[in-house]
Predict the structure.
Amino acid sequence: MRLAWLHLHSFRSYPALEWRPDPGVNILVGRNGAGKTNVLEAIGFLANLRSFRGAPEETLIAHNAETAVLRGEESDAQALVEVEITRKGGRRTRIGQKSIGRTSDLRSALRTVAFLPDDLDLVKGSPAGRRELLDDVATQIWPGAALDQAEFDRTLRQRNAFLKQGDRDPATLEVWDTRLAQAAAKVMGRRARAAAALEETLVESYGRIAGEETSVRFAYQSDWGGTLDPTTPASEWAKSLTGALRERRRLDFELRTTGSGPHRDDPAISLGGQGSRHQASQGEQRTLALALRLATHRAVSLQTDRLPLLLLDDVYSELDPDRSKALTDALPEAQTFVSTTRLDEVPVPGRAWQVSEGDIR
Ligand SMILES: Nc1ncnc2c1ncn2[C@@H]1O[C@H](COP(=O)(O)OP(=O)(O)OP(=O)(O)O)[C@@H](O)[C@H]1O
Ligand SMILES: [Mg+2]
């Protein structure tokens, strides 16, 4: 995949940007606040319809404007992607002349894998970040996964809304349990398969950054059913989650919320047989965080036969010389966007661009 050009109108600090990046490596250089991350965020938004900073949509619109427009062309498939964000919360998305309603359609036109300054949280932080990583990998590989996730989120909200009403009718809850378990089983199945796909590429990418072979496992674990095997049929999971929901029923009525399910599961990564979150060293955790992004890129490339764009937001300033070199050597041949305040910190050869005052030169 190649982004041939990018147009931004009233997107964050860019009143009007027209930019033709290089098909290879692009290095965006500029002082703090110049707008480097904003560009990477815009490219990520065109691919995923959400900000990799987790920013609410209205914050993406330039302060003095009502509407932000992002437009880009992917040159391999010649797909023209356009997104319009409005303050009223409406969003229009088009590929070519066709309006699309779902992120899944967009994903196949443009995919990105982003290395972010907070990536260490993937390893050290709470399970939510790892669940999000698996969901991200799953939707990049199987675009339909986004629909299953939306269906699960909606059903969970409805079950929780019922519990909040304080109505203790078990028959009604039983109906929600069945629906929730069916939606959940699809999400869990995709996550378990995504974890398996990542585990396969993770061993190699970890080895490349660490410079030595280590066993790396990525298991999808639930708090109610133990480790979930990716080959287990969805019906089995639905059944065991239904059982877990029934067992917790009194507690759920009491706490008025759903205590078991994919929204509570803990995908766990282990290094050399030990849990990475609490037992790995700081250095091992850093290496693992980089390896996870590399492994994601590799897994998505293998499964989809296309190379996602790479976004590296201020990653090199945090790395020691050894990891910096190892990462550079391990980077795939994809179109790449690197942001930095200092060009001499980036060891990757590429085309340097100066970013300032809403422009890239
Ligand atoms: N909605 C918006 N409208 C106008 N300007 C915005 C908006 N959102 C953010 N900005 C501006 O964009 C700038 C931040 O840009 P960005 O995060 O891309 O900087 P950066 O070049 O990555 O800096 P750093 O090197 O510190 O990471 C800030 O100065 C902020 O005021
Ligand atoms: Mg930045």
Summary: The chain has a mean pLDDT of 93. The radius of gyration is 22 Å. Residues 117-305 form a domain with the Glutathione S-transferase Yfyf (Class Pi); Chain A, domain 2 fold (CATH 1.20.1050.90).
